[in-house]
Every structure is written in C-alpha cells, then in structure tokens.
Amino acid sequence: MAIRTIVRLTPAKPKAGENFKLQVVAQHPNEPGTRKDAEGKVIPAKYINQVEVYFEGEKVAEAKPGPSTSANPLYGFMFKAEKAGTFTVKLKDTDGDTGEGTVKLELA
Question: Distance (Å, rounded) from C-alpha 77 to C-alpha 87?
Fold first, then answer.
C-alpha cells in the first residue's frame, strides 16, 4: 500500500537567504509491534523507518524514525533558501511500502 505523502513549505515563498521549514505529513498507522487487538493478539510492527529529502535530485537530509513514532506523523526539516528548485521526499516503511511527495521552492 502506498504511503500518502503531503509536502509543504513555511513560508511558502521565502526570500533568498531566509530560513524555511519543509514539512512532510505521512498518512500511515505506524504500528510499533507492542499493541494488541481486541482478541489479545499482538498487532505486527509496521512503521516508517526511512525519510529522505532531495533537492534537485541531490539528497540533502535524511531521518531514520523508529517504532515509537505516532500515527500520521509530521516530519520537519529546516533549510536556507538559496535558489529555486524542487524538493522530493521519499518515505519507506518496514514492509517496503513507499510514498513520495514533491514541492517547488519559489523565492519571493
């Protein structure tokens, strides 16, 4: 199952040299493997364990979340606006399911 991924920038159009935040929202249950269902059976672990951020095809940030991450997590990364371009964020979970989202950086 694909991971629904939404990517946004705050502010949406930063000025050159200004810091901005890239935020990633992932629609994912992030099961840690420690909870039980109504019948008492352990729900298998399934969580996002890889977040990669690319700018114009070059990896610029990476995170390795663990099983304690909440459902539908929000990840944030700070950058300095230097030039316009496209960010691509790639997610992967422990089952190998993936998600991808993009956002264009436009300078004010």
Answer: 12
State residue 64's pLDDT score.
Answer: 97
pTM value?
0.93
Q: What is the pLDDT of residues 43-102, one digit of tens each?
A: 999 999 999 999 999 999 999 999 999 999 999 999 999 999 999 999 999 999 999 999
How far is residue 8's CA from residue 97's CA, in Å, rounded to a whole number?
22
What burial class does residue 48 get, using C-beta atoms within 10 Å of its C-beta: 0-12 exposed, 13-18 middle, 19+ buried?
A: buried
In angstroms, the CA 40 to CA 63 distance is 33
DSSP strand pairing (74-80 vs 85-93): unpaired
- Reduce the DSSP state of residue 82 to 3 states and report it: coil
Neighbours of 16 (CB within 10 A): 11
DSSP element (H, E) containing 27: strand 19-27
